[in-house]
Amino acid sequence: MSYSVGQVAGFAAVTVRTLHHYDGIGLLVPGERSRAGHRRYSDADLDRLQQILFYRELGFPLDEVAALLDDPAADPRAHLRRQHELLTARIERLEKMAAAVEQAMEARSMGINLTPEEKFEVFGDFDPDQYQEEVQQRWGGTDAYRQSRQKTASYTKEDWQRIQDEADELTRRFVALMDAGEPAESEAAMDAAEDHRRGISRNHYDCGHEMHTCLGEMYVSDERFTRNIDAVRPGLAAYLRDAILANAVRHTP
């Protein structure tokens, strides 16, 4: 039995365009074609799509998903075991984050001030004070530093969670654009860069396009930024820098 691209899109809750893209890059090539040349997907194709979506949910880039699934030595059961382990770990982390947000809501409703440690507890091992001395030396006398200190002084854990969620959503947008082959100079990438700039202005300090391009350059010139950003998707730091620069040029009179 085989299924049309529309049926498969409905089964998997993905778009037809996504399935066309997967076919185009060789990630999921349907095993059959109708007499009219339309894509027809077999049960084996659906099994592969399920594996792809599992790995995508876990944040794997498409090229890495393809390498994993096309490994001739790979055992399908091993894929499932690995995905189960990764998903279980994510569930545990999300449960901890949900508990932290509940604590923040309760503290806020009771008028309790959270400590700096509590504000950043939700981000795991991240130490908000790790670079504090360096930050103060480099930017302590700037308006941006003073604005950021003033704005963030009253932030609750809920506020920091919101900011992190916004950042994660933007990261997913940029990764999706890269996976889709969108150039950093495309309208979609520049729009994402503009949302990135506006988020900084909204949550931290006034960030004009010139300052934004300086940040973009720092993402690739400071190996700590590059390492952290590229941990999500190799090449993401440079892509983000290029999109920021293109967006700044777009807004230059």
UniProtKB/TrEMBL annotation:
Pfam families: MerR_1 (PF13411), TipAS (PF07739). Residues 77-104 form a coiled coil. PROSITE patterns: HTH_MERR_2. SMART domains: HTH_MERR. Residues 1-71 form the HTH merR-type domain. InterPro entries: DNA-bd_dom_put_sf (IPR009061), MerR-type_HTH_dom (IPR000551), MerR_fam (IPR047057), TipA-like_antibiotic-bd (IPR036244), TipAS_dom (IPR012925). Keywords: Activator, Coiled coil, DNA-binding, Transcription, Transcription regulation. This is MerR family transcriptional regulator. It comes from Streptomyces parvulus.
